[in-house]
Amino acid sequence: MTNTTFIPRRSVLTATALLVCAAPMLTAGSPATAQTDRPAAAHAPAKPLIIAHRAGTGDYPENTLLAIERSLAAGADGQWLSVQATKDGVPVLYRPTDLSALTDGSGAVAETPLSGLASLNAGYAFKDADGAHPYREHPVRIPTLAAALDAVPEGRQIYLDLKQAPASHVVDAVVRVLDEKNAWDRVRLYSTDAEVTGLLAKTERAQVAESRDATRQRLTEVALEHACKSAPPAGSWAGFELKRQMTLREKFTLGTGDSPVTAQLWTPESVACFRSASHGRTPIVMFAVNTKADLRTATRLGATAVLVDSPRLLLRPR
Hints:
Elements: E1 3-8, E2 13-14, E3 49-53, H1 65-74, E4 78-85, E5 91-93, H2 114-117, H3 145-151, E6 157-162, H4 167-181, E7 187-190, H5 194-201, H6 212-225, E8 238-241, E9 244-252, E10 255-263, H7 268-274, E11 284-287, H8 292-301, E12 305-308, H9 311-314
Parallel strand pairs: 3-4, 3-12, 4-6, 6-7, 8-11, 11-12
Antiparallel strand pairs: 1-2, 1-9, 4-5, 9-10
């Protein structure tokens, strides 16, 4: 008997097997996902919604109003936006732990008042295809969540990825803005932090993804054990990478053996498991879909939506 463990590069995924070696608006129909007029299209799977990851991090400075505007113009069906809250409790679009990662400032967003972000250049670290920094002379700013909601037209998807600890600080700030904007029906909420997910799930109107830990565990059970032990709770949705770099670790009596693998945990079997308790309606969002080939795979699997880094390239006509 061997113990087999998958270890993702950024998180830990563990499973044991015998001798294993190896909501509203969540439907297609916008221009980027429309079917063709050919008769054969009636038998083709519906194309997933194209969601601009961090508003299109591969094309423009991420999580900025500029990126939102340009990705929508490129044909994206919606936006995936990273959210943190300032020291004075204003939710803004920013992802890394420290402001120095992307801007000409420094420090944590949670330790900086909104006024301290006003002059920072959110495009300071952005490089174009030639390695130049075009936004150092043409700065773009860190937007508030309220401004971002105003920038996305009705009928387009909005996913908010809450990126901050302590969880209550960012959750309270986001809830307040969604209440003020009456925007609960427009947004879906996600976090890799189970505490954030748990707090959001207590809000009746929140459309929250189940915890990443739960999604990972279920995907692993289907992949390694071919067992569907549970499905996401009613009203939730699920998101995980279409493919993920992992390490397969086998534990033996006298040691371990590691093998790097590219794991595709979304399969017809796992998709069926996730939707088994909802009559096929549980929304599934597949992350890191950045090639035409991966988009075809996600389409065949029946993804509801996919996250893409460069809508400009993926949606560009051949």
